[in-house]
Amino acid sequence: MMREWATVVAWQDGIATLHSEAKTSCSSCSARKGCGSHMLNKLGPKDAHVMQIPSEKPLQPGQRVELGIRESSLLGSALLVYMTPLFGLFVVAGLFQMLFHTDLAAASGALLGGVGGFILAKGISTLFGDREAFQPVILNVALPPDLLRVETEA
């Protein structure tokens, strides 16, 4: 099970709104100038992920919770997102090459197949995304921030 900590933003009627920051390893790596991931992280959104998860226990804002998601659902999602467009790209490019016998047609087919694969992956993910196996669950709940007290000797 993949685990990640998140902060409670709000809790109302058994639904917890959680805030989880996107983590990258770019801050600990020294190969920033020659790394494609570092450049993509600079281009991507800087905001954190906000999600709503059912929670029977009442939670307070600022409280930390540990979330978990199954590896199989994570791998299945990655397979769907990456392989469907790639499969569409190759199949439609090959089909257009066979039908029209030009490289321009193959390139156009590759573009259409890739975009079609993304659209197909999005449609499939909306069908299966609401299943319980693909939803994160709360594994552990930390103490509320107002119960935590630090005493120092002065």
UniProtKB/TrEMBL annotation:
Database matches in InterPro entries: RseC, SigmaE_reg_RseC_MucC
Record keywords, A-Z: Membrane, Transmembrane, Transmembrane helix
Membrane-spanning residues: 74-98, 104-121
Protein name: SoxR-reducing system protein RseC
Name of encoding gene: rseC
